[in-house]
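Query protein
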Amino acid sequence: MNMRANRDVNESARARAWMGRALEEAARGRGRVEPNPMVGAVVVQGDELVAVGHHGRFGGPHAEVVALEAAGGRARGATLYVTLEPCCHHGKTPPCTEAILGAGVSRVVAAHRDPFPKVAGGGLARLRAAGVEVVVGAGAEAALALNAPYLKRLFTGFPYVIAKWAMTLDGKTAVAGGDSRWISSAESRSLVHQVRGRMDAILVGVGTVIADDPQLTARPPGPRTPARIVLDSRARTPVDSTLVRTAREIPTILVVGGDAPSDAVNRLRESGCELLIDPGAERPSLDFLLGELGRRGMTNLLVEGGGFVLGSFLDQGRVDEVDVYIAALLEGGDHARTAVRGRGRALMSDSLRLRDVRRSFVGDDVRIQGEVPAAWREAMDRLSEPAPPDEADPS
């Protein structure tokens, strides 16, 4: 290997390492910054870490500003590693590009471009025009995965949908009579509450409400208080259910069809629930709901069941990720209490194959997470593609 190639390899490794540190910072904002993206930044002089920063809360200072303020005068001539293209517009905070230029940073390494219309390459162009060296692509895969919910909402107008369920080793989510407590371990249930605590909303069908009377809350509370959403085309949610009784304390949205009985709708509304009515449909469409959630700035939606609800989301291509807990239990029954009850496939070879599958043990359970392929992900992946030669991917 010649000297130049060796130098390029070393620079690539260095860029990945510093971007990895910036991504660790970015993840500290999970559940606190949405609908903004999670962003982390690292200021480096030579091989020395000078300062770090992350976007800590919605409306608060951006990661670049936090890191540069911590660096002070040592930012001059330094390299700034940042997990997302710096903004170049006035929003809730001033443009990060101006803070970068004011600090005298000589080089910016960004994981990928920001497709937000008021940025969309303009931040990188502003820095480059001012004489700052700009490199795009280091750590892009991990950065894109971290902010997939933010990017999905930008590309589609819909929140990122996670389908979650727990099942026995033989694929059951309950016994024939409906009892399901508890399939997963205490450790798994604790982890589910952590996931709930960073969601914008948790969704179930009315059948689950009637059968289980769930709370659909994070216990203990997380950084967010998710709204509870029930798909309930005929407004059958019992007024004495836990969800309705606590609707004045925790946002509770019932999604009903235009033909739902008006007396039932009024009773639920008077109890403190929000009724989201799809006027043109007997059964509300998922796109009607997801579009409304996107307009409200909701970024992460957790769908917890039951089987027909999960089946509808999968049949209509509205699931972005699955999060499944498989317990070392054998129920053994000959019944249809299965996690997903959609149309299914005629051939096993036609089954949906997940990508980026992750496996872990939680107590005695196996947790499997994976992403569902979708067209918007292809657009997301292109955000790290090199354009001009000076944006070549150092990784």
Observations:
- Residues 388-395 have pLDDT under 50 and may be disordered.
- Residues 168 and 230 are 25 Å apart (CA to CA).
- The first helix runs from residue 3 to 27.
